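Can anyone check this?
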Amino acid sequence: MGRTWNANRRRDESDFLNWLRKGKTVYVITDHRREPDAALMEHPRTYNSYTCTGEHPLIGGWQMSAHFVNGKAISHTDAATLFRWAGEVHDTPPHGIPHASDPGPRVNGPLPYGTYEMSPKEIQYQHDQAEDRANGDLKAGRRKRTSWF
């Protein structure tokens, strides 16, 4: 694995900023288990890549861009701010952790015909669920009673 800079270690920020040059790419790991919408993520941890686009023309300091669309950088941030926010920065992609834009495992969608048959118990459960939902809608006056099966 390549170099890793940590915000908790002394002199790592200045070492990181001295190492950084235009065109270099760094990688930051995001832990989605701490986020409120963690259930929406396919992977518990992903990484993002940030590319150094050069120095800021007025205040100096390295500028990092996160997203490129048609060759143009969309999101910019200061390298020092990125380092403090991320906590840990890598110079190579982390092994075994997918990129944030990688697709998750395919688990949705219909199964091929004949691969799964519902048992009578499951069918009865589904029928009871539909019946309860229809009764609830009837009580609320949302729609008329119809037969679903």
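Reply from J.R.: I decoded it. DSSP finds three helices and eight strands in the chain.
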